[in-house]
Amino acid sequence: MTALPEALSDLLRLMRRAWRRPAFRVALLLALALTALGLLGPYVAPYPLQGLGVEVVSEKSLLPPSLEHLLGTDAMGRDILSRVLFGLWRAVIVTLLVISVSAVLGLFVGSAAAVLPKPVETVFVYTMELFISVPSILLAAALVATAGGGLVPLIVALVLTWWPWYGRVAYTQARAIRELDFVNLPRVFGLSRLYVVRKHIVPHVVPPVLVEALSDLGSVVIEMSTITFIFGAAQSISEPDLGVMIGLGLRYVTTHPWVALFPAIFLALLAISFTVFGEVLYEEANPVLRKRWFKWF
Amino acid sequence: MLTLNYIIRRSALSLVLVVGVLLLSFVLTYYAPGDPALTWAGRPRGPGALEAIERARQELGLDKPLWYQLSTYIGRFLSGDWGTSVKFKTPVLELVLRGFASSLELVAYSFLVAVPLGYLLGISAALSRGGLRDRVIYYFSAAISGTPRFITAAVAYIALYVLSQALGTPVIYGRLSSELRVGFEEITGVITLDSLIQGRLDAFLDSLVRIIPPAVVLSTYPMGVLARVVRIAVAETLEEEYVRQAVSLGIPAGVVMRRYVAPSVVPVVAQLSGLFFSYSLVEAMAVESVFGREGLGYLLIKSLESSDYPLIVGSIVLVSLVFVVANTIADVVQAKVNPRVVV
Prior knowledge:
Mean pLDDT of chain B: 83
Helix content of chain B: over 70%
Order of helices and strands of chain B: HHHHHHHHHHHHHH
Distance between the termini of chain B: 10 Å
CATH architecture of the largest domain in chain B: Orthogonal Bundle
Structural class of chain B: mainly alpha
Mean pLDDT of chain A: 83
Largest sheet of chain B: none
Oligomer: heterodimer
Radius of gyration of chain A: 23 Å
CATH topology of the largest domain in chain B: MetI-like fold
C-alpha cells in the first residue's frame, strides 16, 4: 500500500502549514502533553491502587488538597490526582481507539460500497444510514446493562455510531471519482479490480477521511464523557473515568468543590485542545477558508 | 427535481431502516451475553424471581423457533406493545413517549437560541476574515462547543444556585414547580405548549423560566459549530463567480449578502440542524440530569439503576425511529430546496 505513507506525508505538510498559527501550536502541544500524561498516568500515579478504585481509605474521605494528596481526596478517600490520571488514560485510549477503528471501518465499507456491484452498494449504504440513526448513549446503555461497565461496551457503542460518518465521506469521495477515466481505463486494459481500487481509489479516499477523523477527536472525547457522566449519575459503573468522577462529585460540589472541579478542568482542557486542533487542521485542509473577503467590500 | 417518485423511494428506504432498527434491537436483546429472559426481567433477586424470569421467557417467546420469535418481536413493536417497564410497572411506550416529549422540548428551545445566533455569528465572522472580530468569534465558538455540555451545565447550575441563594428566590430545578404541577393536565407532554393550550399563563411562565438556562447551555454546541460552518459556507459562496460579479458591479455589501450569499447558506444551516438533532439529544440527557428535568436522561438513569432492559430497548427504538423520520423529512426538504441532491 502506497496510499498511507503518501497520506501521512500530506498530513505532515498540512500540520506544518497549520503550525504557523499560534492557536494550533498551543492546542497541539496541550493535546500532546495531555495524551502523554494520560498514557503515562497509570505509571506515575502516586496511589495506583486508589486510582484504579481497588483501595478505599474511608477515614480519609473528602480531604482538601494537601501535600500528601495534591488534588484532595474523593468521597471514598481515594487520591483524586491518581483517579484523574487513570481517567485521563481511559479518555485518551477510548478516543484514539474509537477514532482509528471507526475511520478504518468507514474507509473500507464506504469505498467498498462505491466499487462493488449495485446490490452490495445498496446494502452498505442502508447499513450506514441505519447506524447513523442509532443514538450512541442508549446503545452504550444497553451494552452496559448486559455486559457490565468495562471499556469494551463503551468502545463498541461509540464505534458503531461513529464509523458511518467516515463511511459516508469515503463513499461520496469514491463515488465521485469512480466514473473518471483514470479509474476506468486500467479496467479496460485488463488490470484487476483490486489493483485499480488500491492504486487509484484508495489514495483519493484516505486523505479526507484522515482529516475528518482527526478533526473529530474532540467530539469523541465529549460524547464519551457525556455517556459516562450519565452512567456515573446512575452509579452503574465505578471505573476511574473523568465523566463518572464529575457526575459523582457534583453531589458534594457546594461543600467539597475540588472533587468535581479537578476532573472537570482536565476533561475540558482535553476536549478544547482536541477541538481547536481539529478545527484548524480542517480549515488548513480546505484552502478556500483562508482568503480575506472583507477587503472586497 | 422533487418528484413523487423521489418521495416514494425515500419513504421506502425509511421503511427498510425502521425494520433495520427493530432487527438491531432484537439482536441486542437476544444475542447479548447472558440469558435474555434474565436481562429482560431486570435481573430479579429474592422471592418471585423465578416467576418473573419465567414470565419474561414467555413474553420473549424463547422456547419458539427463531423466525417465530423474530416475527412476533417485530409485530409487537409495530402494534404498539413495547413491553412493561420493570422499574415503573407501566407500559414502556407511554413512558418513553413522555420522556421524549420533555427532551424534545429542551432541544427545540436550544435550537431557537442556537440557529439565529450561530447564523449571525458565522456571517459576521466571514465578513471580517482574518480580522479581530473573526478571530474572537472563531475561538469563542471553538471554546463553547469544545467544552462538554455537562460541565457547562454544572457551572451554570451552580452559578444560578448561588445567585438564587443570594437573592432569596427559588432554585431553578425541574420542569414545573410542584404547586403548579398539582392538577396540571398533560396533553402533549411538552409543558410550555400544554400550558398555552389550556390558557395557564402562570404555568407557561414558570416552565419557560425553568427551561431557559438548560436550553442556553445545550445551545452552545450547535451554536458554536453552526457559526464555524456558516463562516465556511459564506466564504465558499463569496468565491463564486456571480458573487464576485455583483461585488465588482459595485452593489452594496448588504445587498450582496442578502440577495446573493444568504440563499446558498440557508440549506447548509437546515441540513446541519438535522444532524445536530441526534447529537443534541444525547447531550440533552446529560444536561437534563444536572437541572433535574424529567426526560429521557432521567429515564435512562432510572433504567440503569434497576436494570430495566425493556425501557432501554424501548428508548433505543423510539429515538432511532424519530431520527429515521427526521432524516427522511430533512432529505425531502433539501431535495426541494436544492435539486442537485437527488441523484
